[in-house]
Design goal:
Layout (H helix, E strand, L loop, with lengths): L1 E3 L11 E2 L12 E6 L2 E6 L2 E7 L2 H13 L17
Antiparallel strand pairs: 1-5, 2-3, 3-4, 4-5
Length: 84
């Protein structure tokens, strides 16, 4: 995934956010847009930084979601204070 500050596209992207986003005034949301060449993502509090996943990585994630391979998956917790 690459982070960049893109030039304004010829057609503005239409950003969407989940209705399940935080209720803190809309400042804690992940926004998504369909753009030329694939999806784009940004945080609502940093709208100028746009993430563009590599096509192969995006396809692999979609395959894993559709197959159910990620069902019930919980991310690992970061180590606590004093952990090695």
């Amino acid at each position: 995934m690459t982070a960049r500050r893109p030039a304004a596209p010829a057609t503005p992207l239409r950003w969407q956010r989940s209705r399940f986003s935080g209720s803190g005034g809309g400042q804690e949301c992940l926004e998504a847009a369909a753009g030329p060449g694939g999806p784009r993502f940004r945080e609502s509090d940093r709208p100028r930084t746009v993430l563009t996943p590599a096509p192969g990585a995006w396809a692999a994630l979609l395959r894993a979601v559709k197959s159910g391979a990620l069902d019930g998956h919980r991310p690992a917790r970061p180590p606590g204070p004093g952990a090695r």
